[in-house]
Specification:
This is Metallo-beta-lactamase domain-containing protein. Its cofactor is Zn(2+). Keywords: Hydrolase, Metal-binding, Zinc. The chain has eight helices and ten strands. The protein is of the alpha/beta class and about 230 residues long. It has one domain: Metallo-beta-lactamase, Chain A. The strands form two sheets. The chain has a five-stranded mixed β-sheet with strand order 1-2-3-4-5. Strands 6-7-8-9-10 form a five-stranded mixed β-sheet, with helices on one face. Strand 6 and strand 7 form a beta hairpin. The longest helix has 13 residues. The protein is globular, with a radius of gyration of 17 Å.
């Protein structure tokens, strides 16, 4: 363990994947911009007064750059379950919403942990919960470990960060691409440099073995990802 008291900038990235049939998958939606003040107050109180969340480029602008709109997205996968990853889910009116079953069940368990990342409105904001449970329950998919959602698209429980944390595997013509929040940045793959906000060290070690084994790993909080893959993969 190291770097106590040291601050790092992270990027809460989204991933857009399009297959040969034109089907679009989005990983994480970003937060609801109208919820930022509440989230920043929560993070400042529970983490650090210097902890601040902002939206630089909304997901619809990234989609538009590729020639798509939110209404074209058929699947949204969320990892982990947090307000910053699910906040825009109600805007994806035509998409299936995939959440790891273990994370969904943990959210509804009777245990409540007085920690910022388990505070219910910080996990699933009330408006998003309303949408998933009452407005669009037929499009909510609770995903199991190693579940194949479509040819070439598989999800796997990786844990480490949250009970809803998963690795999302895309098979491309250039090899396997894995996206996950169980390692925040590339440096977390270096032995002995696991992410600091960790629930289970052994899950992180196992996940990192997988991440290191694939041709392309996308750590969802690495601020260099957009530059590293400016032209996409595949």
């Amino acid at each position: 363990m190291s770097d106590f008291g040291k601050e790092y900038e992270i990027g809460l990235n989204a991933v857009i994947a399009v297959n040969d049939s034109g089907e679009i998958v989005v990983v994480n939606t970003g937060p609801d911009i109208n919820d930022l003040d509440r989230l920043n107050k929560l993070w400042a109180a529970g983490v650090s007064s210097r902890c601040h969340l902002a939206v630089e480029v909304p997901i619809e602008q990234h989609l538009a750059r590729l020639g798509y709109s939110i209404s074209d997205v058929g699947t949204v996968l969320v990892t982990p379950l947090q307000a910053y990853s699910v906040g825009r889910v109600p805007d994806f009116l035509n998409a299936r919403i995939g959440i790891l079953r273990s994370g969904w069940e943990f959210f509804f368990s009777t245990r409540y942990h007085p920690h910022p990342h388990d505070y219910p409105p910080n996990v699933i904001p009330p408006t998003v919960l309303q949408y998933l449970m009452y407005d669009a329950p037929e499009r909510l998919l609770l995903l199991d470990n190693h579940e194949e959602m479509a040819p070439g698209l598989t999800v796997r429980f990786t844990g480490a960060h949250h009970r809803a944390s998963m690795g999302i595997s895309f098979q491309t013509k250039h090899g396997e691409v894995v996206v996950s929040d169980s390692a925040f940045v590339r440096e977390n793959l270096v032995p002995g440099r696991l992410l600091g906000i960790i629930e289970n060290m052994y899950e992180a070690l196992e996940a990192n073995e997988w991440f290191r084994s694939v041709p392309y790993f996308v750590p969802l909080y690495d601020p260099t990802i957009a530059e590293s893959y400016a032209g996409g993969i595949g």
